[in-house]
Structures are given as structure tokens and as C-alpha cells.
Automatic annotation (TrEMBL):
GO terms for molecular function: metal ion binding; metalloendopeptidase activity. Belongs to the peptidase M50B family. This is Zinc metalloprotease. Keywords: Hydrolase, Membrane, Metal-binding, Metalloprotease, Protease, Transmembrane, Transmembrane helix, Zinc. The chain crosses the membrane at residues 97-120, 381-403, 423-445. Its EC number is 3.4.24.-. Residues 7-439 form the Peptidase M50 domain.
Amino acid sequence: MITSLLAFVLTLGVLIVVHEYGHYRVARACGVKVLRFSVGFGRVIWRYRKHPEATEFTLSALPLGGYVRMLDEREGPVAPEERAQAFNNRPLLQRTAIVAAGPIANLLLAVLLLAAVNWIGQDEPKAVLGAPLAGSLAERAGMRAGDWVQAVSRDGQDWQELRSLPELRWQLTQAVGARAKLYLNLSDKDGHGRRAVLLDTDALEGRDLDAALLRKLGLGGAYSEPVLGALVPSGAGAAAGLRQGDQVLSVDGVPVLDAASLRERIRAAVQDGRPRTMQWQLRRAGELLSIEVTPRLADDAGKTVGRIEAMVGAAPQFVKVSYGFAEGLMKGAERTWEVASMTLTTLGRMLIGEASLKNLSGPLTIADYAGQSAQLGITPFLSFLALVSVSLGVLNLLPLPMLDGGHLMYYLFEGLSGRPVSEWWLAQLQRVGVFVMLLMMTLALSNDVTRLLGLH
């Protein structure tokens, strides 16, 4: 809980400061006087000003946003000698640049953060997959346990090399979001027997771009050898004579493809409310053995399942994924563009009812994910920070009053018509903007609560 709170505060602090600094820096470059740079809203708890005419930097009690207050004749009287420094008196292109600078700063931050992840590098599971789910898209495409996905393609001609399982999941997420097919170039886990398969990801029915939808693809997790780890001394596995390091070859005459399928066979070894004895064939120190294994029953979310009280499965193979300076920066920019495009696509699909409103997330979900990523290490946290920064940048560019994108729409109208939006229209649009923002915040918070309660 403390980790999540601290990570959430750090996330908000970094993103708000960067966003507002974008506005502040460009405003100063355009000759606009900045009165206050605030992180947070409400009561000021800390302030600093170098001299009476300088910008006042403040930290306020409610750290869920920030603002840059500029000299503006629409907000108060301006001395004649300072009129040239007022925001409303600057040329249209300068006002546009000042408003756009905040979201652009967030997008640039995302590029740098993702580039830093690429430069630092991280250990990621190799894209070698376990057995696909029965009847799934993956199984119908001819995939099997131990398949190593080495490249992906949208058209079967232009292939993009993969380095890890997270890269594959990202490509799948994009394909599902774009309703596009995805070709996979496969080999066995040792790199032999290359072949291509087609996943009909465009045929998936579902509106949520989440883990549940990806599971419909049927792709297994990272491949794990069906080898036993540590056993509970008094557990069912130890009582049957199993030992650490045993490699399971078959159960009841059916070959065991990977650790995931072995775990499922163990869980399903229940008949009429009683444990069912299984016949295991295994290899131990080069010797083939046949052993009868009777699991013990356990309750799992109201369902009775079998357990042998042992670690099942060897650790998956990991690879170090890192890039040089130029390539890392380029890939950071590419990933930022991809995330921004997918975010806009999802928002558009939500607007027309083709994607679920459950995709909206609020502060509770962000805090939860911030804590989880922080506990995993510096690179997962930097990746999370980058994704939130992209979301903040894209959200602020939406053409909604109260957001930077709304002001940019006003300036577009002014540029095309030669006159600014009238005060009456500004007031009406502001009311609409407040309503839309409150509605989005309510939906996001509702999704947060139901997600944390496990109701999604």
C-alpha cells in the first residue's frame, strides 16, 4: 500500500511538472509573463519566488494536476507597460505553441523514458510458448507447445523480428485493437523447422482490449519444461515417490507437452468429489520410471481441484533485451507513436460503441499499477511512467473544452475565420466541457472500483 502510494505520487509529480513546464518554457520563449507555476490545486503549502516580478512556484494541497497562470487581460487588469507580455496579446501561432507545448512535453518524455528502458535493457521471457488452449485460434492455426515466435507480420511479406514474449503480446494487442490479422513466423524452441501461421485476430469478438480478450487467442504463456521443483515433504507428490528434478513424460498414457498442461492434468484429477489416481511416466537421472500419483483435494475459488504440493515447471528461458543509443531512441519514438495511435483508436471505438467503456481507468488503477511496476524494478516502472505520460498527452489533445485540445480548436476557428470565439460561446462550451470531464471521471472511478473488487 505504501509503495503504491509513493509510486503514484512520484508518477503524478513527474508527469504534472513536465506537462506544465512545457507550457511555462514556451510561454517564456514567446515573451509571455508567467505569474505562477503550480503543482496541485487548492491551498498553497509551499511557495518560492526569486523576486517580486519573477514567477511564483507553488506546491498545493491537492496534487491531482497543476497549472501555469500567465498574464492575461481577460483574467484581470494589466499595466500598460506589460500589455505586450499578456498571453491574449500574443500572435495566434505563439498562443497555439504555448498551449500545445504541455501535451507535446508529455509525449517527448515518453520517448525518452522508453529509450532509457531500451538503453538499460531488461531480462524478458523468450517468445517460446506453452501449449495453446484447446479449440482456440492458436490451436486452429497449428501452434503447439514449444513454438518459438521469431517474427510477426500484418501481410505475410514484411516481417518484424521479435526479441521477447512482451514484444509478442504488444503486437497481439495492436492487431486486436486494429482488427487486423497477424502472421507469426515460428520454429521449435531450438530454432529449427521454420514455418509461418496465420492468426485470425480480426475475427475476435470482444470490445475490451485486456488480458481476457487476449486469452481468447489461446496462446500459452512462456514455455516451461514439465520438470518438478521442490516438493512439500509430507505432500501428495512426495508420498507418491516423486522427487525434485523428475521430468514428466506422460500422464495416463497422454504425452505431457509442457508444465502448464501438466498442472491442468493434476487439477482435473478429481472424480465424484474424490481424488483420482494417475499413472505417470517420468525420466529420473536418465532412467524411465512409472509411478502412481494420487493428488490431494483443495478448494480453488469454490471449485475442488487436485494438488500434488510441489513446484511444477522449470523456470522459463529469459533473454537480455537492450539497444544502442540511436536504435533505442528510435524504438522509443516508435513505441510512443504506437501507444498514442492505439489510445486514440480505442477512444474512438468507445465513442461509437465498438469498445467497452471499461477500458477507461482512473487514479485507483494508476496507483495500483504504479506500485506493482515499482516493485518489479526500475525498467518496469519507467515503462509504466512512459505509458501514462502518453495517455496524459493524448487526453489533453482531445478537442474538449477545459483541455489543451479544446483551446487548440478555438485557435483553429480563429485562424480560419479571422476572429476569436465569442465570450458567449466560450461560456457554453465550458459548461459542456465540465459535464463531459465529470462524466469521464465518474466512469473511470467506477471502473477502478469494480476492477479492484474483481467485478470486471
